[in-house]
Amino acid sequence: MSATPLLELRGIDKSFGPVQVLRDVAFAAYPGEVTALVGDNGAGKSTLVKCISGIYPIDAGEFVFDGQPVTISSPRDAASLGIEVVYQDLALCDNLDIVQNMFLGREKRNGLVLDEPTMEQMAAETLAGLSVRTVKSLRQHVSSLSGGQRQTVAIAKAVLWNSKLVILDEPTAALGVAQTAQVLELVRRLADNGLAVVLISHNMNDVFAVSDRIAALYLGQMVAQVKTTEITHAQVVELITAGRSGELGLAVDPGVNGNGAAPADSTTGGVS
Amino acid sequence: MSITAVTKEGPAAVAPAPTVGSHVRGYWQRVRGGDIGALPAVAGLLVLCTIFSIMRPSFLTAGNFANLFTQGAAVTLIAMGLVFVLLLGEIDLSAGFASGVCAAVLANLITVLGYPWYVAVLAALLTGMVIGTILGFLVAKVGIPSFVVTLAGFLAFQGVVLLLMKEGRNISVREPVVVAIVNRNMPVALGWTLAAIAVAGFAVVQLLRYRSRAARNLINDPFPVVLGRIAALALVLGLAVYVLNLERSLNVLITSLKGVPIVVPIVAVLLVVLTFVLQRTSYGRHIYAVGGNREAARRAGINVDRIRISAFMICSTMAAVGGIVAASRANSVDPNTGGSNVLLYAVGAAVIGGTSLFGGKGRILDAVLGGAVVAVIDNGMGLMGYSSGVKYVVTGVVLLLAASVDALSRRRASATGNR
Ligand SMILES: Nc1ncnc2c1ncn2[C@@H]1O[C@H](COP(=O)(O)OP(=O)(O)OP(=O)(O)O)[C@@H](O)[C@H]1O
Ligand SMILES: [Mg+2]
């Protein structure tokens, strides 16, 4: 496991009008690791993701990607850095087939003409690389796929582009037990292939099953980012619901800097 | 990843090669799953032609066969443009009168102002493009529903035609080139040559595709199916050209009348070009994507507004082509050109052919097949002596029928998870 983060955010502020949704957020994602981003409804997880992917501009703060300070002002910027997002609603076109969806907006062409064989081959290789064997034909419409298969296609679409960082917003929220296991396995495999993976989830079992680190957001503040092995289920739940848990999280009284630094982790986002 | 209960087969690349049998079964499965495509149109065409041929033997003559093409061409051309707008899940109710406006521009330039035909044709096409740009801008940028924008256009363009016609007088079009489009035929040999070129071109494209997919070990349609497709096209084109090349003059001593009407290759070329645009370019792919899931298209970096505006531009430009053809057929333009049933026939043609009113599904070929159905109904019922009143009612019922088939097959598809 690498010690230097692929993506590091420092001091991110984001407001929608008078509402401050993100407050001085620090966050890091490491190559080869799954970083779980947890927090209650409305904590700001999706907003943070959209800031990273360039959909929302940030008010303050800095991005460091691969050791370089960068600015991301559009989804295109994020994509060119190798950041791909699998949104919660997946954003697939039901009337297009798997290959067409995976290459949507970035079709391979021969001059003017779509290069279907190349696209189909690349799609097959990507799915095979992810050891996906559950789709019958690459030419079937996405609408005929199960929830887990659709999720698989969305994830495959994200890793097709030599991406370095893949962010998944609640990929298992709508799935049954078997398909959830299937998708989590896929998530794990992405990290094992060397990618940095950020997984947003409300399901603590999923989080503990696949993640290497856990980052907890509480009302727009990053209250802790710790290794999964060094925290318990109950502590994470406390962080999510109360913003603090023992030494971790927000200060007890304002004024005292009760920084919840996790051991052996310099990127903890303890904020007062 | 473990193989789950969802499917049992391996990844696409190593799935067993499909046979003719499995290909047919796959097709039948898709049909039963609600993906019926142009099947109703083809079936309807066969049934209608059979009925009319039995009831009125004059239906099944070379002369009437040629009539079908010249009568249906304008509506079919407008329907081809409408497919683009329908694919986005939008509608263009103004396409009929837009074609009228463009025809009026053409007639004014040729007859009143004496410009050469190519200037007038270009101006008509340009008028269509401008109309489409305005409609598209109002829909995509201002955000007015296309139904409202084009309903307003429907009224306004009707007025524009009246104004261009100097309050109701019609303008005759005697320019030989324009008149020739619908009223003249190609030499017999040229008809055969073009048909041969079309079949050869189709064969080359199909075989190259087959080879390149085979070379990469991708799943291919079975070779007999590919050959069958080529043979089917050769058969249909050959038969059509043969019949159109028959003598259809009542008295050969006075005049000889045979050959493929010039408008047919025009429709055919536009069919090929627009099909290419929709199926083989990323622009076409993006049209389908915007029609299927606009938000997904936007997140994929597709400029959704540009796609929507351009679809309306193509639609109105094709309406202009339809208007030119209508002017050619009537040898004149009057305030009702593009009016009355033209728009509904065109929408009907697209929908009957299998284009979905819900967006995301449809082909240019649908418009041609549906256009054929509409032309056959119109023509056959005319031969049987029914009044326009009955014709309108029947066409309306057929349109409703097609829309119901669309809606029902959609329901079935979502029930079986097919689309
Ligand atoms: N476009 C917006 N304009 C104004 N406020 C917004 C906007 N988007 C999000 N918010 C607010 O920001 C806060 C954080 O929202 P966000 O969607 O990031 O939460 P979340 O952590 O993803 O929650 P969930 O778990 O429910 O998905 C919420 O209070 C929400 O109301
Ligand atoms: Mg969210």
In short:
Chain B: Keywords: Cell inner membrane, Cell membrane, Membrane, Sugar transport, Transmembrane, Transmembrane helix, Transport. Chain B: It is a multi-pass membrane protein. The complex is a heterodimer of chains A (272) and B (419). Chain A is α/β, with parallel strands linked by helices.
Explain this structure.
The complex is a heterodimer of chains A (272) and B (419). Chain A is an alpha/beta fold. Chain A folds into two domains: 1-82 and 165-272, P-loop containing nucleotide triphosphate hydrolases (Rossmann fold); 91-162, no CATH class. Chain A is 29% helix and 26% strand. Chain A has eight helices and 14 strands. Chain A has helices at 45-52, 75-81, 98-102, 116-129, 147-159, 177-192, 204-210, 233-242, and strands spanning 7-16, 19-29, 34-39, 60-65, 68-70, 83-86, 109-110, 113-114, 165-169, 196-200, 213-218, 221-227, 244-245, 248-249. In chain A, a hairpin with a 2-residue loop joins β11 (213-218) and β12 (221-227). In chain A, α5 runs parallel beside α6. Chain B is mostly helical. Chain B has a two-stranded antiparallel sheet. The interface between A and B is large, with 51 and 43 residues. The structure holds adenosine-5'-triphosphate (ATP) and magnesium ion. Residues 16, 19, 21, 39, 41-47 of chain A line the site of adenosine-5'-triphosphate. Magnesium ion (MG) binds next to α1 of chain A. Chain B: Part of the binding-protein-dependent transport system for D-xylose. Probably responsible for the translocation of the substrate across the membrane. Chain B: It is found in: Cell membrane. Chain B: It comes from Micromonospora gifhornensis.
